[in-house]
Amino acid sequence: MPRLLVVHHTPSPVTRALLEEVLAGARHPDLGGAVDVVASPALSTGAADVLAADGYLLGTPANFGYMSGALKHFFDTVYYPCLGAVAGRPYGLWVHGNDDVTGAVRAVRSIAGGLGWTAVAAPLEVTGPVDTGVREACRDLGGTLAATLLD
To answer: What is the pTM of this model?
Structure first.
């Protein structure tokens, strides 16, 4: 069974809500439970988790124009042990910020590109509160990543 690793840093109610919607999409009944969806906090996710997964979904707040320190720590921990072994695997990203997420998106894209991951959906860039449209976009992102692993 393919495994989707959802690595997240969700310290606020808003980022937690985004995570829950992404997971709902990845676990949608239409996928028939055919993907093992594993949600893992960024600070406790290691190289073994990354190597055991077939695809990745990353979630972070935008802090001071960058990804969270927790997600950066995740990348620092797994980058070299996984380099070369995970190239070509699909990934997706969601980022929440109060007004700007550009720097966080750019940073994650850069590191994911260095690992050789392939973006299979545009990053979900969320600013402000979570509304119905954002919730739907999160479910779509989760579903897209999970469905990609079934192809």
So the answer is: 0.97
Cβ atoms < 10 Å from Cβ of 76? 11
User: Token pair 């995570």 is at which residue?
Assistant: 19
Q: What is the 3-state secondary structure (H, E, C) of the chain?
A: CCEEEEEECCCCHHHHHHHHHHHHHHCCHHHCCCCEEEEEEHHHCCHHHHHHCCEEEEEEEEECCEECHHHHHHHHHHHHHHCCCCCCCEEEEEEEECCCCHHHHHHHHHHHHHHCCEECCCCEEEECCCCHHHHHHHHHHHHHHHHHHHC
Strands 66-67 and 3-8: unpaired
Residue-level pLDDT at 151 = 79
Q: What is the pLDDT of residues 39-75, one digit of tens each?
A: 999 999 999 999 999 999 999 999 888 999 999 999 9
Using CA atoms, how far apart are residues 84 and 103, in angstroms rounded to an integer? Answer: 26
- Distance from first CA to last CA of the chain, Å, rounded? 12
